[in-house]
From TrEMBL:
Family per record: Belongs to the FAD-dependent oxidoreductase family.
One Pfam family named in its UniProt record: Pyr_redox_2
Organism of provenance: Neotamlana laminarinivorans
Coiled coil: none
Protein name per the record: FAD-dependent oxidoreductase
UniProt keyword terms in alphabetical order: FAD, Flavoprotein
Length: 434
């Protein structure tokens, strides 16, 4: 019986295993050094905030794996011998496979800061990070202040988590406005104000120089590079992005760049070895997407696609139109298609931006100013339907059509009625002025 070994029990690896089982009777082993059972990584923050217990983050009961004949092995792979199709574990044992899938995800970036490995320095990615947070920041008596370094989506989640326990937070963001490499100016500035309204000490254009230790090797303070200012703190959250978690492959014959290099079929340079999820790097980026996508739903799609290939129906990975969603404190964010920031905007890209007076709701619609084709939309504080925008992007609708039919895309019509007329009026006014 063909044996499929999957290294990594995140959304990619587990989706792959489930779909292989639906399609076949192959032997499946999922290997993980992190946790015994799969859990939802995106839900970790809610455990710390008291909304759920850790076991609630596990989508499947513990008996599910036996029932579906999916073997789980806890262990750390430190060497892959692709010639003999053998995995060697740090614990001293080994395992042979017929096909191997690398789905080891990401790890938080570290940029060689002095003190980056001290006690009290953590990311917010693994279950171990959650445990460290409970140790070093259980309350505002033990942790009098936390400093977060890096202004992405994980940074804002960590700020919200600490805020929920009334722990003061200083937030160091390298850019001169929050996430402005991704968001257009109006949205980025609205999020700056929203962060400050939650009493978070947001420091823009600020880089970390070093983390200082007390006599016990624990975090005592940080130094801001630009000003030399010292800020006392007990916890430092490193949230300056993530990197593929592939250091264990350095002596293997598997080709790596920043991630494990794969083609459109998620195949590596070695026969019968594949990579999916955050750790996979496309040789050629797909459309406007990045070669590495550390996104939950693309990991799931890669798992579903590769299961077909492994079970005899060779399938190309086609992720479709870009979309994503997140939360900035209590503002929900959704994006469909492409809306670029001023920094990376294309010459032909124009934006229509509308913001509500309460400063917590806005939309930005991107379109081609030469052809009027709708390119994408960002929404903040207003929920929209994915299927509707997906359809309009495929149909290459023009901006006028989209603006006049926004109500059809709305997720919550009663809630939305108050803004629909305002948005259309603002859009029509802009056209008149233009």
């Amino acid at each position: 019986m063909e044996h499929i070994a999957i290294i990594g029990n995140g959304i990619s690896g587990v989706t792959l295993a489930r779909h292989i089982r639906k399609l076949s009777d192959k032997k499946i082993t999922i290997i993980s050094a992190e946790t015994e059972y799969f859990f939802s990584r995106t839900a970790l923050m809610y455990v710390y905030m008291g909304h759920m217990k850790f076991e609630h983050t596990q989508p499947y009961e513990n008996w599910f794996w036996d029932k579906n004949r999916i073997n789980l092995k806890k262990g750390y792979v430190n060497e892959i011998d692709t010639d003999n199709k053998t995995l060697h574990f740090a614990e001293g044992d080994s395992l042979t496979y017929d096909k191997l899938v690398i789905a080891t995800g990401s790890k938080p970036n570290k940029f060689g800061w002095p003190g980056q490995d001290l006690k009290g320095v953590l990311g917010m990615y693994h279950k171990q990070d959650l445990e460290n947070l409970e140790t070093y920041a259980p309350n505002n008596k033990v942790c009098k202040r936390a400093v977060i370094v890096g202004g992405g989506l994980i940074g804002i989640e960590l700020a919200e988590m600490l805020n929920s326990r009334s722990i003061p937070v200083t937030f160091l963001v390298r850019e001169d406005s929050f996430w402005n490499g991704v968001l257009p100016k109006g949205e980025s500035e609205m999020i700056n104000r929203h962060i400050k309204n939650h009493h978070i000490d947001l420091r823009l254009s600020s880089n970390l120089r070093e983390i200082k230790a007390d006599e016990n090797g624990q975090v005592k303070s940080i130094i801001i590079d630009e000003t030399g200012e010292e800020i006392e703190c007990n916890v430092v959250g490193l949230t300056a992005g993530v990197t593929p978690n592939i250091s264990f492959l350095k002596d293997s014959k598997i080709e790596v760049g920043r991630g494990v290099k794969v083609n459109r079929f998620l195949e590596t340079n070695i026969e019968d070895v594949y990579a999916i999820g955050d750790c996979a790097e496309q040789h050629e980026a797909i459309g406007n997407r990045r070669p590495i996508e550390a996104v939950w739903y693309t990991g799931r799609m890669m798992g579903e696609t590769l299961a077909q290939t492994i079970c005899g129906n060779k399938l190309e990975y086609k992720p479709g139109h870009w979309f994503n969603s997140a939360k900035f404190m209590d503002i929900e964010y959704q994006t469909y298609g492409w809306v670029f920031s001023e920094r990376s905007k294309k010459d032909f890209e124009a934006h229509f931006h509308w913001k509500h007076d309460d400063d917590t709701k806005c939309i930005t619609v991107a379109y081609n100013k030469n052809t009027n084709e709708f390119l994408g939309i960002n929404t903040f504080g207003i929920r929209m339907r994915h299927e509707t925008f997906d359809k309009w992007l495929t149909e290459k609708r023009d901006i006028d059509y989209v603006m006049n039919h926004l109500a059809e895309a709305n997720f919550d019509p009663e809630f939305y009625k108050r803004f629909e007329k305002d948005i259309l009026k603002a859009y029509n006014n802009q056209l008149t002025i233009a």
